[in-house]
Amino acid sequence: MSDSVPHAAKPLVLVIDDEPQIRRLLTLTLEANGYRVVTAERGQEGLVLAAQQAPALILLDLGLPDLPGTEILRRLREWTAVPVIILSVLDDETGKIAALDAGADDYVTKPFNSGELLARIRVALRHAEKKSEPPVFHTGHLVVDLASRRVTSGGQEVSLTATEYNLLRLFVRHAGKVLTHRQILREVWGPNAETQTHYLRVYLARLREKLERDPSQPELFVTEAGVGYRLVPVPEPA
């Protein structure tokens, strides 16, 4: 039956698990039920494949050798809303809550029943957002790779502090929209910083210094007087 479905029309599932037997079992099960499968045995490899392959869903083992599963989830959620189902040998309430808080859509304990897992995959895909943020954002001479956290301006890589990057990422996620001072402060510095406008002035000046062609006449990060700031999508230079 599944052979009648065009290959490109089959949803792609990314399996990130360091156990070869689990990867093999999941590949056989998923392919027999109309899915395409790509696998990774380490977290960093999985993050790269997630950006390159744009899977419809990710099955993620928490016990990977290089990165904690919650860290992988956190990085994924910086740029994509792809459904993530956790596969774990741990069946403790605290671990489940931590994974769900980090951005997981569901949690399945190993050993799992294949029929139940397939049902959970179908549910997650139905609930999935139809469109995720693109992993690479372009505006003018600025390029922001949200998956790898690389920022380039005029073709040159730019080094940003963690706070500078978090501020830039917020602008990228809302490109073209006005962000109020209060909203920016709350998202980047937390709810207790909503009145600390000097934080915002200082860090906006730093972003302009590093990313604008002429910081004194910004074309990317423009001020909306009395309201906030906006990242302006501008044509790429000829």
Quick recap:
The protein is an alpha/beta fold and 238 residues long. The protein contains eight helices and twelve strands. It folds into two domains: 2-127, 3-Layer(aba) Sandwich (Rossmann fold); 136-231, Orthogonal Bundle (Arc Repressor Mutant, subunit A).
Explain what the structure shows.
By secondary structure, this protein is α/β, with parallel strands linked by helices. It folds into 2 domains: 2-127, Response regulator (Rossmann fold, 3-Layer(aba) Sandwich); 136-231, Orthogonal Bundle (Arc Repressor Mutant, subunit A). The chain contains 8 helices and 12 strands. It starts with 11 loop residues before the first strand and ends in a 7-residue tail after the last strand. Mean pLDDT is 88; it is low at 1-5.
